[in-house]
Design goal:
The protein has 307 residues and is α/β, with parallel strands linked by helices. The protein has one domain: Alpha/Beta hydrolase fold, catalytic domain (Rossmann fold), CATH 3.40.50. Helix content is 42%, strand content 16%. It has 14 helices and eight strands. It has an eight-stranded mixed beta sheet with strand order 1-2-4-3-5-6-7-8, with helices on both faces. α2 links the parallel β3 and β4. The longest helix has 14 residues. The mean pLDDT is 96.
Length: 307
């Protein structure tokens, strides 16, 4: 277990180790067990620690569960299969629904950032009866993301790089994981440095991304979302069928990353695809909303959760 600096990121929260048929998962949970449950899912290349500036306040009104996604943090990191279904967002969504039921939550609100948001919207599409409210932080649907990359080659180069067949990206990253992942953190922040990240959170991120099995798991996550992967296929099938999100949806987009120099805002994308009734807000700063601009992000989430 990490030292005092990381423990203090979530004052009053308990550590949960949750055993399921899909493996062992780690989470931090805080707030009254009788409060409405809120599941927070982190993004790449982070862990549950990204929520540390929001979770204590959210726990005043909700039972907050900050989960390490499969392959990240302290949750299990299975090798996966040739079809990448182990890390498909549909697979992860089913596993997370089962996990939440095991800890006593049949229905819950969800907020996800980046990769966690991709899992969250897949849960909401596949199991709408489970999700009370859905907040999506700084993404557009996976199939739209690939359309943008095709229209502007060179945009988001980590997507095609990480989706390459094993072991090419694993070996390249493994030569110096800190240099690769910290370079992404810098590139995607508005300040282009690491000053927005708490030392304790960075410690946990480094601890995770320096493990070869987790480097592989993160690549598998992107392969599942690759051009021919199951995540994109699931999006395309649902769009063709006219499927939409039934619950209230909040879209938060960064001004200096996701919505910067784009002809269409993230909110507009969601409104014309899966969430025609979505509401949204533009958050000042870069991609890491919860760490770069926790005040605006928290205010928007709390207003949304209050309904």
């Amino acid at each position: 277990m990490a030292g005092d600096d990381t423990e203090n990121l979530f004052p009053g929260f308990e550590a949960l180790w949750i055993d399921t048929p899909a493996g062992r998962w780690f989470a931090r949970a805080g707030g009254s067990p009788d409060a409405p449950p809120l599941l927070l899912l982190h993004g790449f290349p982070q862990t549950h620690a990204m929520w540390h500036r929001l979770a204590p306040t959210l726990a005043k009104t909700h039972r907050v569960i900050c989960l390490d996604l499969k392959g990240y943090g302290w949750s299990d990191a299975p090798v996966g299969t040739g079809d990448h279904s182990t890390y498909a967002k549909r697979t992860l969504g089913r596993e997370i629904v089962d996990l939440m039921e095991r800890i006593g939550h049949v229905r819950f609100a969800m907020a996800g950032h980046d990769r966690g948001a991709r899992v969250a919207y897949r849960v909401a599409l596949d199991a709408p009866g489970r999700v009370e409210r859905l907040a999506l932080l700084d993404i557009v649907p996976t199939t739209i993301q690939w359309q943008r990359i095709a229209a502007k080659p060179g945009a988001n180069p980590h997507w095609p790089f990480l989706a390459k067949p094993a072991p090419e990206p694993e070996e390249a990253i493994g030569r110096d994981p800190d240099a690769y992942y910290e370079g992404l953190l810098r590139d995607w922040t508005s300040k282009h440095d690491l000053s927005s990240f708490a030392p304790g959170a960075l410690y946990l991120y480094r601890q995770s991304w320096n493990v070869p099995e987790r480097i592989h798991a993160m690549c598998e996550d992107y392969r599942a979302g690759g051009p021919e992967g199951p995540d994109r296929a699931a999006d395309q099938a649902d769009l063709a069928a006219g499927e939409t999100l039934a619950m209230p949806v909040l879209v938060l987009a960064s001004r200096d990353y996701l919505d910067k120099d784009k002809p269409e805002s993230a909110l507009a994308v969601w409104q014309r695809t899966f969430a025609p009734k979505a509401t949204g807000a533009s958050i000042a700063g870069g991609h890491f909303l919860a760490e770069e601009n926790p005040d605006e992000t928290l205010a928007a989430l709390m207003a949304f959760l209050r309904g």
